[in-house]
Write a sequence for this structure.
């Protein structure tokens, strides 16, 4: 059944690399909505070391993860096998937001594939790494990544992305602050 690990072993890293989708869960400190976001594009997730991972956060309709991490830092990332042996892997940890104006942006960005519309990188220090059986997870066949988000971002110039982020990414659905005006402006210059 389930096991707790003190680090991301080679076997766990291989499992992570094989999964075409993962899920990110966060919640505000008090009240508000719990958020779970599915993430795709295999080249948007990186294992940085034995207990640290990161993913490329692309411009989307909301900014719950950013707001929640800035509120309390709590995050869980879940991978589950839809093919092969049943397995669920959860990475519980403390996350932080790196934006294009931060000194470590370029170094971290090099860890990921090219995607237009990158607005931040979420870095997570794993405090608990645990797997479980996944016996009830269905078998599903992966066909291919949807490239609609990349296509959407490619059709936007810097000004249009700035305007979209100002309207949709400054606050969470519960009103918590997410991206600052300065971060949005800086990101627009990196397009």
């Amino acid at each position: 059944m389930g096991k707790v690990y003190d680090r991301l072993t080679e076997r766990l890293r291989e499992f992570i690399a094989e999964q075409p989708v993962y899920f990110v869960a966060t919640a505000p400190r008090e009240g508000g909505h719990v958020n779970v976001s599915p993430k795709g594009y295999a080249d948007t997730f990186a294992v940085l070391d034995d207990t640290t991972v990161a993913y490329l956060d692309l411009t989307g309709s909301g900014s719950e993860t950013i707001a929640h991490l800035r509120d309390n830092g709590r995050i869980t990332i879940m991978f589950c096998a839809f093919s092969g042996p049943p397995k669920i892997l959860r990475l519980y940890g403390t996350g932080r937001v790196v934006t294009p104006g931060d000194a470590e942006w370029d170094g971290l960005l090099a860890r990921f594939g090219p995607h237009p519309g990158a607005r931040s990188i979420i870095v997570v220090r794993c405090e608990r790494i645990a797997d479980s059986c996944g016996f009830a997870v269905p078998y599903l066949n992966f066909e291919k990544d949807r490239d609609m988000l990349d296509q959407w971002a490619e059709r936007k110039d810097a000004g249009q992305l700035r305007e979209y982020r100002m309207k949709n990414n400054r606050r969470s659905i519960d009103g918590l602050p997410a991206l600052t005006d300065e971060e949005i402006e800086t990101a627009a210059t990196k397009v």
Observations:
- The chain has a mean pLDDT of 96.
- The chain is about 25% helix and 30% strand.
